Structure prediction request, 630 residues.
Amino acid sequence: MATIYEVAARAGVSPATVSRVLNGTAVAADLAERVRSAAAELDYTPNRSARSLRRAHSELIALVIPDIENPFFTALARGVEDVAREAGFSVVLCNTDDDLARESDYLRVALAERMAGVVLAPASERSDLSGLVAAGRPIVAVDRAPHEHSVDIVTVDNVAAGRHATEALIARGARRIACITGPAGVDTADGRAEGWRAALTEAGLPADESLVVRSDFRQGGGRESMEALLARGAPVDAAVIANSVMAVGVARALRGAGRSLPLAVIGDLPIGFDAPDDLIALPLPARELGASAARRLLERISGDVEPARSLVLPA
Amino acid sequence: MATIYEVAARAGVSPATVSRVLNGTAVAADLAERVRSAAAELDYTPNRSARSLRRAHSELIALVIPDIENPFFTALARGVEDVAREAGFSVVLCNTDDDLARESDYLRVALAERMAGVVLAPASERSDLSGLVAAGRPIVAVDRAPHEHSVDIVTVDNVAAGRHATEALIARGARRIACITGPAGVDTADGRAEGWRAALTEAGLPADESLVVRSDFRQGGGRESMEALLARGAPVDAAVIANSVMAVGVARALRGAGRSLPLAVIGDLPIGFDAPDDLIALPLPARELGASAARRLLERISGDVEPARSLVLPA
DNA sequence: TTGTATGCGTTATCAA
DNA sequence: TTGATAACGCATACAA
Prediction:
């Protein structure tokens, strides 16, 4: 591994000049040329540990997500990568499996490695960002808003998403619409349920709270929710499902029971999911969410010190 | 961000002693205790850029995969993480989307960042590992064997996998079995097709090469392959499918044509995929593959300098 | 066992 | 514009 000194020696210049060429500071054309060819001949790769130490941050952006198998997060990842790469940063993915301890670990590593910044899709509202925040490192939360900390946040309009999904079912004649959503206290879950409520109310329909089922945003939870609904003979003629992973479970429960029900699902469907014909998917702008988060992060990395800002994308 | 000097000052010891406490070298119990509490009070996080510079490598392991949406690779990722974390390394995921240029980029970054090592699931046999190899950095290839380079390789027994899948169909009475596999020259694709051939031959059945369809391991490819087979009226009564992502497409093509065919699929099925009843899935030990690769990598990181070794896991 | 001093490879400051 | 040099924070060789 050649160092900057070896390149300098071979080009007959000082290490400082090599550094300047590599970093785009003004250098005479002939010197720059000599440096470039010396670097090429030696197959010189700058040592980023040294650079990070000196500059106080690396060129890595951590993207911390709770579930690598959820297509929403993989789409989001693409958005982050698109804009980060454009700006010369590399994105590394950290999968927490919804585990707060693992999330903490990764955030700690990102801090210790002096990564340029972090885009975090929090595993929970109780996610602990204190380390990064205390150190003043760039971080933006996406999808969910963490409590306790004031950081930049990029979310979608969950209420609108819930409303649109519900309206689509109403438009098809549904009157008693169940709402299968995530845990209480989770803003994505609560917002979508609120949209369901709003759509029903606006349509002059009763928003029967007993038709709101709280689940866990996972496949098994979706299945159990629908099974419970069927078991207690709830008089539903359609259902809004707050994310696509749960929709898979819901569809299975229905099929298992030999039933069929118009479904409106918030989010893109997983690859391979054979959706029933009466299922409406309302895509979420996952990629755009990631891109926006990354853009905000880049602003922070470039030194923006404005107060934390909250951005809500239309559904 | 506190430094080792501040911790040392507060504990009334030298920086070297702090370093020793943190790294587990022998230090008197009382000093160690003082250091630990000083570190805690200052919320000291060692600067890994500095450590990496000094030690010549970081505590990050890069896992470079071609398709983050393929459940095989996410399972593999879990295996890598399990053993890497156990050993104190953090795993960062790099998704290349089957793009050799992006793969190269990530490998370059891993080298420049002086990451401890790389587990690579190559996007192609033509993957360029020259940078890492030339620098003598630890790297192990998994799933596919890259040409051109001699590195540690961990794969599954693809031939056995293909054979088992085919045998399962033969056992159910199938006689003319199609084989939908990946591109020629890709060892996973070729091996599985070879297993298909072997099983048929062993069963005294003809291995009709016109029933081998070369596709791309992706959903669309699976669909097109089956559509082509149906379109030309190939006399098949079952099919072996070399990976689970293609199986989704195949199942759709069949359903679209109003047909049904016993299917044997190599690999775990994607979440949400509603497999037809006559589909047999033959799981691949993806997680174990990742774990083995990580173990081999750890040996390299600890200084093993034996010649490159090749490990083939049973299917 | 502990401390001192040095160097890892860069970038930035300062002089020239 | 260019070069000499210090400093980033840590781990270790060496001395005590």
Observations:
- Residues 3-5, 15-16, 19-20, 23, 46-55 of chain A lie near DNA strand C (CB under 10 Å from a C1').
- Residues 162 and 273 of chain A are 21 Å apart (CA to CA).
- The two ends of chain A are 49 Å apart (CA to CA).
- Chain A has a mean pLDDT of 94.
